[in-house]
């Protein structure tokens, strides 16, 4: 991946120093012959210098609650080769005319701008991103962007085994694969299409190519797959997987019902009954997952608790829909068309001020699980997971 800008390196250095310079950290004397270490005083002077000289995080990507949005998710297409029950109706969703979707060049212009402002992680999603013919090229172009540390994809896995070697070469370094059941017949029922073995092949290809962890997204729904929690956990024993159990969320057309949602607490309880030694793993500050591990297992399990315990307070994500709308919250209805401004010839400054205004309007948190179920929420395929 291309080098990071100095401002980002400094920020990270400041953070790591801040951890290392804790007043309770023991100060050890250097052994004879060892280079002498800087004193606490020297370190704090250096820290002060770095704080004063490090570029602050982009004001355009910082909201009124101080959240710094360094993670961008882009929907590459609204189309999908599956019809998951929790995501879209059997007949599919109305598709935006092709001319209204972002072109590759537009995607790259926008991402360049976001990365310049401090976005260091981009996830390609959809619809199914791996049906977009130029996906490998998009990854390769993103890989050129200075400052971008992570390029990830969230995929249903159907085309993954075939495309992953090229995607990896192009620079893809993080992967999430959706799989809600380990029973082939149930897979067909949930996604309304065939393809279980292709998804499994994709997961194994990702492991073979060294992705670690390979994240497996599993939307848990009562009466559908909550009886498979322990089977999914068992997969983490010998494989470097991060199985992520996702609470079922309401979107237009998915017939969400509170009773069908299995909460994080309920899932955790069921797993702990079988595995009382399950232990919590510390997560990154902006992580949306609560992470656990069974000692001795290669992989881990996580919970995405968007409904029962939202993580809005540390949300660092922005989304761009396939038709070019910037969406600052998965569950908010306010969207602004970056595509229209781009096509009208807006300058970089103009685009940044539009983005900054939208980010500035981001609410402290989503409206709560019962309210969002009553709201209009564009289907997930439009928003891009
Ligand atoms: N097609 C790709 C896939 O399935 O991985 C990417 C797009 S999909 C919309 C992104 C993620 O959203 C998937 O992991 C999917 O399981 C999850 N998802 C879709 N609808 C959901 C819902 N109603 N509740 C929770 N997660 C959902
Ligand atoms: Fe397609 Fe992903 Fe939605 Fe399933 S969850 S229908 S694979 S976009």
From TrEMBL:
Q: Which Gene3D superfamilies match?
A: Aldolase class I
Record GO biological process: Mo-molybdopterin cofactor biosynthetic process
Q: What pathway does this protein act in?
A: Cofactor biosynthesis; molybdopterin biosynthesis
Task: Determine if Hydrolase is one of this entry's keywords.
Answer: no
Query: Which stretches of sequence are listed as region Disordered?
Result: 23-42
* PROSITE patterns given in the database record: MOAA_NIFB_PQQE, RADICAL_SAM
Superkingdom, natural source: Eukaryota
Q: Which residues form a coiled coil?
A: none
Catalysed reaction, written as an equation? GTP + AH2 + S-adenosyl-L-methionine = (8S)-3',8-cyclo-7,8-dihydroguanosine 5'-triphosphate + 5'-deoxyadenosine + L-methionine + A + H(+); (8S)-3',8-cyclo-7,8-dihydroguanosine 5'-triphosphate = cyclic pyranopterin phosphate + diphosphate
Question: What are this entry's molecular-function GO terms?
Answer: 4 iron, 4 sulfur cluster binding; cyclic pyranopterin monophosphate synthase activity; GTP 3',8'-cyclase activity; GTP binding; metal ion binding
Does the record's keyword annotation contain Iron-sulfur?
Answer: yes
EC number, as in UniProt: 4.1.99.22, 4.6.1.17
Which is a Pfam family this sequence falls into? Radical_SAM
Q: Which UniProt keywords apply?
A: 4Fe-4S, GTP-binding, Iron, Iron-sulfur, Lyase, Metal-binding, Molybdenum cofactor biosynthesis, Nucleotide-binding, S-adenosyl-L-methionine
Query: Which cofactor(s) does the record list?
Result: [4Fe-4S] cluster
**General function of this protein:** Isoform MOCS1A and isoform MOCS1B probably form a complex that catalyzes the conversion of 5'-GTP to cyclic pyranopterin monophosphate (cPMP). MOCS1A catalyzes the cyclization of GTP to (8S)-3',8-cyclo-7,8-dihydroguanosine 5'-triphosphate and MOCS1B catalyzes the subsequent conversion of (8S)-3',8-cyclo-7,8-dihydroguanosine 5'-triphosphate to cPMP.
What family is it from? In the N-terminal section; belongs to the radical SAM superfamily. MoaA family.
* Assembly behavior: Isoform MOCS1A and isoform MOCS1B probably form a heterooligomer.
Q: Give the protein name, as stated in the record.
A: Molybdenum cofactor biosynthesis protein 1
**What gene is this protein translated from?**
MOCS1
